[in-house]
UniProtKB/TrEMBL annotation:
The keyword Nucleotide-binding applies. InterPro entries: AAA+_ATPase (IPR003593), ABC_transporter-like_ATP-bd (IPR003439), ABC_transpr_FbpC (IPR015853), ABC_transpr_MalK/UgpC-like (IPR047641), Mo/tungstate-bd_C_term_dom (IPR008995), NA-bd_OB-fold (IPR012340), P-loop_NTPase (IPR027417), Transp-assoc_OB_typ2 (IPR013611). One of its GO terms (cellular component) is ATP-binding cassette (ABC) transporter complex, substrate-binding subunit-containing. This is ABC transporter ATP-binding protein. One of its GO terms (molecular function) is ATP binding. Residues 9-241 form the ABC transporter domain. It comes from the Bacteria. Keywords: ATP-binding, Cell membrane, Membrane, Nucleotide-binding, Transport. SMART domains: AAA (SM00382). Gene3D superfamilies: 2.40.50.100, Nucleic acid-binding proteins, P-loop containing nucleotide triphosphate hydrolases. It comes from Yoonia rhodophyticola. Belongs to the ABC transporter superfamily.
Amino acid sequence: MAKITLSKLRHSYLPNPAGPADYALKEIDLDWSDGGAYALLGPSGCGKSTLLNIISGLLTPSEGQILFDDKDVTGLPPDQRNIAQVFQFPVIYDTMSVFDNLAFPLRNRGVPETTVKARVSDIAEMLEVTDMLGTRAAGLSPDNKQKISMGRGLVRDDVNVVMFDEPLTVIDPHLKWKLRSKLKELHQKVRATMIYVTHDQTEALTFADQVVVMQDGEIVQIGTPVDLFARPAHTFVGHFIGSPGMNVLPAELRDGGAYLAGQHVPLEGAVTGQGQLTQIGIRPEFVRIGNTGLQATVRKVSDVGRHSVVEAMIGDTSVKAVTEDPPPAQGAAIHLQFQQDQTRLYRDGWLATEAAG
Ligand SMILES: Nc1ncnc2c1ncn2[C@@H]1O[C@H](COP(=O)(O)OP(=O)(O)OP(=O)(O)O)[C@@H](O)[C@H]1O
């Protein structure tokens, strides 16, 4: 397994890119350490596949370098990069048995048959497919086929990195959670460097120790699932992660204080930096409905099981609050309290307050 370094990477699909908007990947600098479990998370079109194809060698970047264990592989074709990939759809040989499918990547490399047997039975056990080893792959259900595809990606122990590209797309929703946690468990057992590409926050947060969040060809934050929830570096991360996402509210900044619809909102700490557009970011989990605080009117209440999501209007601005108490009625006049140490200011999208304490 290898450490992967992406250095000053940029990519444009245009022959003569003029400005940042012409780049599918703006400048990417990133270190993925040996044996880590990473997710690349972002909406459709943010550049995930472009980055994946550059790492696997299917695409040569317009600028920058890719290093595996400090060795420059930017010019190497895919077959010389020693990478395993698991795709959205199963890649298996229907006419072969499950055993032969799992053995294929090893036999292809001339691994001795005794090692093949040992390795295939280990992987089969981890994936709980031992009883299927003698079955022809053609007869398997789509999710079992995808499990075997994953097994084929994991069976070699000499690859630099295993990359998963939206691997749960074909899996039935009720089986997804099972395979998600299985993959996490597998990573803990095989300790390979793994990169998991997805637009689904639950998949990314369940699988990865470190999540790389992308938007518009740029990395907006790299952090643990807890970091991304607790202290989003960008309003995009706050909004994209969490359900419902962070409230991002228009704010006026006067004498270092923030105001929302004319009402003062205490922030977590001092405001730093420069920037034009100022916004307050607060997660709905930290907005309380109380007797004092910002005046608001309830617009809508959604019961989502253990708690309710109350959407209230402060002036023209909609704010969401999560509450486990009986919610107020639609149209009620209420007060909202923002937990101060969780109330942040963002400037042009980027975090601009210092953490409390
Ligand atoms: N072959 C190509 N030629 C021109 N533009 C491309 C090509 N492939 C991707 N793009 C553009 O590059 C940008 C990034 O696309 P990319 O496929 O990397 O994003 P993504 O995050 O993987 O999205 P998805 O999840 O939909 O695949 C998009 O604006 C896309 O339109």
